[in-house]
Design brief:
The structure is a single chain. The longest helix has 20 residues, at 38-57. 72% of the residues lie in helices and 0% in strands. With 102 residues, the protein is mainly α. It is elongated and about 50 Å long. Helix 4 runs antiparallel to helix 5. The chain starts with a helix and ends in a 6-residue tail after the last helix.
Amino acid sequence: MSRAWFDDLSDEDHAFIKRFVLASGSLKAMAEAYGVSYPTVRSRMNTLIEKVRLADEAAERSAFERKVRLLAADGRVDPKAIGELLRAHEDELTRSGNGADR
């Protein structure tokens, strides 16, 4: 089984996953451990789920596209900017003749 989805996550995400496992999957225990509300932990979990889903689905995508999509899922890149970045990247690949090598 590929670890690409795990490797694409940040150290902070890895730490969150470890704490989640050690908390036996309890979001309530996670909220207590982090000293935040349950909805805050639920939101963080939803973000992590989206990042894992994107990383898992993106195995055939370029490293650039995977990184941009993960940054967007993490809220670090404006979603509108993603389309522009990916179009520019695709244009660059097409111009350089590497479009098929994504």
